[in-house]
Specification:
This protein has 24 helices and 7 strands. It is an alpha/beta fold and 672 residues long. It has 2 domains: 459 residues, Amino acid/polyamine transporter I; 151 residues, Rossmann fold (3-Layer(aba) Sandwich). Helix 22 links the parallel strand 6 and strand 7. The longest helix has 34 residues. The radius of gyration is 32 Å and the shape is elongated. The protein starts with a helix and ends in a 19-residue tail after the last helix. The N terminus and C terminus are likely disordered.
Length: 672
Amino acid sequence: MTSDERSAKRWIIGKPLPTEQLEGELLPKRVALPIFASDALSSVAYGPQEMFLILTIGGLAMLANAPYVAIAVMLLIAIVVAGNLQTVKAYPSGGGDYEVAHRNLGPRAGLVVASALLIDYVLTVAVSVASGVDNIISAFPQLDPFRVELAVGFIVVLAAVNLRGVRESGRAFAIPTYLFIASVVVLIVTGLVQTLTGDAPVAASAQYSVETDALGQAAIMLLLLRAFASGCSALTGIEAISNGVPAFRRPKVRNARITLVLLGVVSMSLFAGITFLGLVSRIHYAEDPCDLNGFANCETTPQQSVIGQLGAAVFGDGSPLFYVLLAATALVLLLAANTAFNGFPLLGSVLADHGFAPKALRTRGDRLVYSNGVIVLALGAVLLIVLTQANLNQLIQMYIIGVFVSFSFGQAGMVVHWLRIKRDPRRRGEFNPAAFAVNVVGAIATATVLVVVTVTKFTHGAYLVFLIGPVLWLLMWGIARYYGRVRREIEPDEHTVFGAQGDHAIVLVGDLTKPVLKALDYAIAAKHDSLEAVHSAIDVDAAKRLKKAWIRQGIRVPLRILPSPYRDVSQPVIDHLAERRAEHGSEVVTVYMPKYVMGHWWERVLHDHKSRRVRQRLALTHGVAVALVPWRLQSARLLEERESRPLPGDARRGTARRPRPVTRQHHSGHRR
């Protein structure tokens, strides 16, 4: 990595942290709540909005059913929270519903949950950011043409903040989350007081009407189910706490369960309050603003969000509290994506541990976070935002399918978990009938809602999830099979034989240069049984000049010139190695090659292309080990000097970095 790249990385994510600081990066409850619960809490901003949107399709009379739909959603929140309390206690390692399904229903079922959750995490980021941008545009309509650019920019910022580590991201997200809770509470209380004193708030959209055809009983029922399914988006994010138990401070299980209860109580309260104010103020919200009769300039004027309409009705349009509410809502919606930025990398690390995902996902970065998972999630969300043009109504149709797949399999797995305990004589005393009943109810309720959500949303965009999910499942299953095949291939068995007959070394020579002489010096110092220098002669005249220089330099190592009529450097060497193997049997051959070490990124464009291709070919040759002998260019030496100096901030803290040990350059260290 060049100095410019190091400086940019340091500026974005900060100084690397030692592993022993990992415990210090774990979260107390007051920080864990905004980090893990911001998605579930912020979803009350678009959950009621989606519910009102669907009910408005059926006409104003259908809005009278909003309280019943809201009660059903709140009851489901309570059931899911209760079920997840048992999951946190039984499986605190951080796999959440994936681990429950994997252990109790089998790895195939576990991968169904993992596929659903990974898709849902990407959608969480896209939906939260798109909704946040919606609320920003509600306050500043002139920003509507830059909707996609704003959304992509926010995702990049969120990824950068998360790459700095959980403690710093927690500090960044705590204040907006608590400000959102406080502002919505003030909104609800103020609206309630106004209603009780006879001055109920009236939304600007109350004057608009919606033309609808007469609906039959079946159509009314389907509309209510669609409204319930859309309102269930308020449940997203609840699973993040059971997936992120390892990030809590000790006692992890107790702190995670307390945070989960707080999340459930606050989420249900805010959902109920916003629904109540929406009904009192007679809010109308449509997917297409032109469906609202009387909405002027509907083709050019963006429709205010439900939160924006409530703020204008209760606090007054353009008042300071109106802007505080919208700012807090936009911030928490944008930061709600942080739930996914914590859950996705943790789940990815668990999948990598089980062999279902690339091992790079379980590697912690400089700031002790699973940085590769953060980057993958950000790229997926950006792609989704660009494809949908940050359209919230399109994104929401694909949403929550994954989370209810997770809930259903997770609760079913917990039922199997309790039944296994009950059947095991050694653990029968651990069986908890109340917890078992909670998980049975949770399994039935979430499976039923999954069917409802699938039926009502399938043709509106949810079918894409059912197309992507199996592909992701097959990909992860294929990764596991690949890792298994490699593990079986490299594990020693009774037929494994060690010990080669002979030790030969080759130094590849292009021109007689200091890097080549240094590689030759290393090969001589290793004291191989035999040693030779090899040159692939692309240019006959150049090969003759090299041979004369070799003799003039007095080098005693024999130089072998290999003709290369097709101008390929690697093939003559490979043919020569094959001949030696046929003659000498299973000897070990070490090929020494010089390699430039550069200090600037652009130098990589100018060097090492041919040697890189040769290394790749030699790596595929049986019985050959490639030894790279570094030769640092002046730019690399200057970079090393700069890197060994303490940074100003380090010096103040007394944590100046030690200079790296300098490797002596061998300008003429060859053997004669």
